[in-house]
Amino acid sequence: MPQMTLIHASSSSSSWLSSCLDTVIYASLIWLIFRIAKLLLWSSHNDASDSKLRVPPGNRGLPFIGETLQLMKAVKSSNGVHDFVRVRRLRYGICFKTNVLGQTHVFLSSTESAKAILNNDSGRFPKTLIKSMAKIMGQESVFSAPKQHKLIRNHLAYFFSTSSVLLFIKQFDKLVLDALGSWEHKGTVIIHDEVVKIILKTMLKSMMSLEREDEVEMMQKDIATVWKALPALPIMLPWTRYYKGFQARQRIMARVEKIFSERRSSSGAHHEDFLQHLLTETPSLTDAQIKDNILTMIIAGQDTTASAIAWMVKFLGENQEIVNTLKAEQLSLVEKFLPESFQTLDNLNDMPYASKVVKESLRMASIVQWYPRLVVQDCEIHGYTIKKGWKVNVDAKSIHYDPAVYKDPNKFIPSRFDAESKPYSFIPFGQGERICMGMYMARAMMLVFLHRLVVTYKWKVIDSDSSILKGAPFMTLKTGCPIHVTPIREGARSNK
Ligand code: HEM
Q1: How far is the CA of 472 from the centre of ligand 1 (A)?
Q2: What contacts 244, CB < 8 A, 6 or more positions away?
Q3: Tens digit of pLDDT for each residue in 67-99?
Q4: pLDDT tens digit string along 198-215?
Q5: How far is the CA of 435 from the centre of ligand 1 (A)?
Q6: Which distant-in-sequence residues (6+ apart) come within 8 Å of 357 by Cβ?
Q7: Considering the entire predicted model, what is its pTM?
Q8: Is residue 438 within 6 Å of ligand 1 at its C-beta?
């Protein structure tokens, strides 16, 4: 009898299960048909209303997915994701629209549109961060907390004050000198990888006085995992890049939290770093704001600057006559600078040609290729109607490569910056209310690195491949710029 009950119970539960499954399948089918019909209606409705308005040219692509597949293809190509934009810009001009996963995106590549959108005087173009990226960076990150943006930015500004940058640069310079000392016997040096390590070490020290080798190594691994997760699809399964990135974020947060509680409990320990400033200033940020923004600053500053330096070394390696001019400037400065000292901001202000090399590298590398903003009110740009709810993207890379703005844009010509650039034509750090907070720090790092490299070594780029690292959130060289170095003179490194 118990057996029968069991059989009965199991057969009734299996028929219940199958009827449930049927219901789910039918409901899904109805939902799918409804979605397709809605999309078709939406598309014809929009086509009808589009014909009355002057909407930007462009291809809507397939229903719902739009041109997502083409974008994914570009992400995976060696030309990098910007190729998707470049090809359409050539086809449609300075303002075109596309559709990615149901969202209309307009790309604009004129200095006029850059001014209107990035300045955002009208308040119509707030910055948005893709939700999956915001989750990794943190909801309280300066990138993802629109209401608190000004407040957080004001608190973070301390890290970029002249005195902080000076200390930061001194530390960076010291580590560059240490690293350069070992390159002569190293064989191949991968610039990107070397610089990433140096920047991270400098940041961890100046932000949290974190110097212990094992701790730095752990952070390095976790930051790299977070970095890879940023552009990944937000699929939370244990083997996905996104999941691993999120786990790494949690580990970083736990470590920073531990430092918080140590600082709060210890009576005697005194630290003069960014974290101490954030913890003791009044009114202070919340713990969550501090943690998210420490991670944000590392993510925002580390790979961007390392990528820019790798491109700079590559561009120079391909332009020997420019290296010669640069070397003449830098060697003359070696005589002038105080021996036994690290680089100061005054020294860096004394490098006019190197500054142009840095600018030209930033123009050509265009590390962050475009800047996305949400449209919160219908408006008109270049005579086209831009609708509320669309995303507009200021295409910095196309502006930097516009032959009407820069003659011979594919050539590396630092002297093009002898003259002032046209407003909004040089925007590697963005512009307006969201302009990069670390731009002077990044420029200073590039100059310090350039100075030390040029006065110490001759170098040869041993793989001139310009392919972009697949899936990287920014324009990162796949090779990382591998070089071989030869010392240029005895004692050139002893400048410390
Ligand atoms: C060559 C190196 C760098 C490049 C090319 C770069 C580029 C940019 C760009 C284009 C933006 C604005 C994006 C937009 O408007 O949508 C930005 C924002 C930002 N950057 Fe950088 N950056 C670099 C280095 C750094 C460094 C070293 C730090 C800090 C240590 C940093 C911190 C930030 C922060 C905090 C923001 C957010 C500003 C805000 O939203 O108010 N960046 N960066």
Answers
A1: 16
A2: 225, 228, 229
A3: 999 998 998 899 999 999 999 999 999 999 999
A4: 999 999 999 999 999 999
A5: 7
A6: 312, 316, 322, 326, 414, 450
A7: 0.89
A8: yes
